Amino acid sequence: MTRRFVSDQPYDPAHTVPLSAAQERFYAATPRQLFWYRFLRHKPAVVSAVILVAMYLACLCIEFLAPYDLETRHSDHILAPPQSIHLFHEGRLVGPFVYGFDYQLDLETLQRNYTPNPQKVQPLRFFCHGDDYRFWGMIEGTLHLVCPAEGGTVFLLGTDRLGRDIFSRLLYGMRISLTVGILGIAISLVLGVLFGGLAGYYGGWVDNIIQRAIEVLRSFPELPLWMALSASLPVDWSPVVIYFGITIILGLLDWTGLARSVRSKFLALREEDFCVAAELMGASPTRIILRHLMPSFMSHLIASATLAIPGMILGETALSFLGLGLRPPITSWGVMLAEAQNINAVVLYPWLMAPVVPVMITVLAFNFLGDGLRDAADPYSR
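^ thats the sequence. predicted structure below, dont judge the formating
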């Protein structure tokens, strides 16, 4: 008996199975829409994207979000522990408030002991006027999202050895640490695409020179090289110049991996029919690279750049922690962690390690986001 896989009956549209609205939208989607659909299916990447967008939006208005100014000191609350937020006091709804501290100095150990006093109820104020600040260093203002009660305090993450609010400094440090990664990867992306594109498109002696240079750079240990170049920055430079200097150093040393990735893509794509056709039609190498080759793997570049940002952030944090990166008065997460180098201080005042938490969250969020972008850019992913 012969089995038939193709019907010999004439085509009848009335007997076809209609497509659902979701199927119709999927089959008619453009490549960008398919990329978006695949990305939305990666739940950790979506959650990470929301977290990162919220953090970068917060960087735009740190002065408003922080309860205190960056350098505000509380000499009566040096190394004070975090204050917990409460809603109810003695069974009565008061709203968000904190309990004030009673202070006592241990004369034997010289340790400062702070005890919450239930009689000192200090309600929080919202959209209030507090410490003076200059918004982005230009516009003077006093409006804050949350402020302590009149004559009270609100130390959500405690204070440091100078009596400065760690939560406020954490927010200010977020602006520096996150932008270092973005600016550094922008420099790395430009250099990686430039040298990787030249090596992959032209090949020959151009490829040999660029590959040997990459091998020389990658032969140096990464962290000692960062330390040596950071230590070479003059100490009399202004904090802003040092900030850009660290950013440029991180970008100049991180482009090699991206350059090799771009080179491999160019080597594969330059032999494709559309590239050969463009050459036969007289298109210049610049036009072929920018108009034909680059769009073919732009999504891959975005995913690679996203995965490289955590390395930039960790590099700045490590250099600042070792005292070779950003320096006060610039505040970053690495600068704040430098105060926790003493193990005794960490044991007695564990809240000084608070910057570790946002560093971990940011690095994990970028890694999950990069995984989601990479999967969404893969045309064979499901």
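The mean pLDDT is 83.
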